[in-house]
Amino acid sequence: MNLNPHELTTLTGHGSAVLSLGVSPDGSLLASASRDRTVRLWSLPELQSSPAGGGEVRTLAGHRGPVNGVAFSPDGTRLASASGDMQVKVWAVPGGDELLALAEHFGAVETVAFSPDGTQVACGWNMWSYGHLTLWDVSGREQLATLRAGHGQLVFDAAYAPDGSAVGVALAAGFIRMWALSGDGVGEAATIRGHGETVRTLSFSPDGASFASGSSDQTLKLWALSDGAPLATLKGHSGAVQAVVWSPDGTMVASAGDDGAVRLWDAARHREVAVLAGSGGLRSLCWSPDGGLLAAGASDGSIRLWVV
């Protein structure tokens, strides 16, 4: 695997940590969610043609708490944002109009994900010492299910399998919980154990055969989706791993965390292939759909873009 990554630019504008990133399916927009209670949209084509030009399209304001997560719909026409104000808002893209607010959560919403067909969103939220995952029908604004993770099992991340057959959550105490989904509803959850501390992030491979997790125990782990069997433990970070994302072609996994480094791993050979220097602690990551760009959101409110 021959890589020659180089930094494209650093984006500034947020007043606090960038907690989540997402790129639209057509690769035109980067969305950033911040503790400063805003979501910002950036034009990736503009940044690629003129890296020093800024590239900001608009700011989405309306949340009354930190924005912990963002996710584009599969068709790219909507953006969901999850907040500490206990709401998930859905916005029109690229116009930025608020389309709806999902407010029937009873704690801070930490993460949000669209289902692969775009009809549902999964919202991970915490109340007291219990983590929950609520599945919503977006068009009807109807709760389909609220899944309880268990005492002491706070939710930190959630993701759908690429074919929509499962939804998983990253939990405290080193657990991952995976629910099977079908036309009949939600099946029994499988609990996957292996990390020594809180699991902070979760990402499925594009083919849906496996998934990656990152933890406060400073490791990444790769797992088989079919039975939850461990495939590899990847070590190299010197702090909590806050974000992992699979490359669009499935050949690499990128990870970032409190040590300020972005590490690229060969997914098949389970080895590190590149290290990119970050800016202080890093909280979020995302790839462009063509795999050419990698973005990392930092605790100081900056976003760094690399050409991979």
CATH superfamily: YVTN repeat-like/Quinoprotein amine dehydrogenase
Average pLDDT: 95
What structural category arises from helix and sheet content? mainly beta
Q: Helix-strand pattern, N to C?
A: EEEEHEEEEEEEEEEEEEEEEEEEEEEEE
Low-confidence stretches: none
What is the CA–CA distance across the termini?
Answer: 12 Å
What is the CATH architecture annotation?
7 Propeller
Share of helix among residues? under 10%
Which term fits the overall shape? globular
What is the tally of beta strands? 28
CATH topology: Methylamine Dehydrogenase, Chain H
- Strand order, largest beta sheet: 1-28-27-26
**Gyration radius from CA atoms, angstroms:** 18 Å
Give the class-level CATH name: Mainly Beta
Work out the count of structural domains.
1
In brief, what are we looking at here?
By secondary structure, the chain is an all-beta fold. The protein has one domain: YVTN repeat-like/Quinoprotein amine dehydrogenase (Methylamine Dehydrogenase, Chain H, 7 Propeller), CATH 2.130.10.10. It has one helix spanning 44-49, and strands at 6-11, 18-23, 29-34, 38-43, 56-61, 67-72, 78-83, 88-92, 98-102, 108-114, 120-127, 130-137, 142-151, 155-160, 166-171, 175-182, 185-193, 199-204, 210-215, 219-224, 230-235, 241-246, 252-257, 261-266, 271-277, 282-287, 293-298, 303-307.
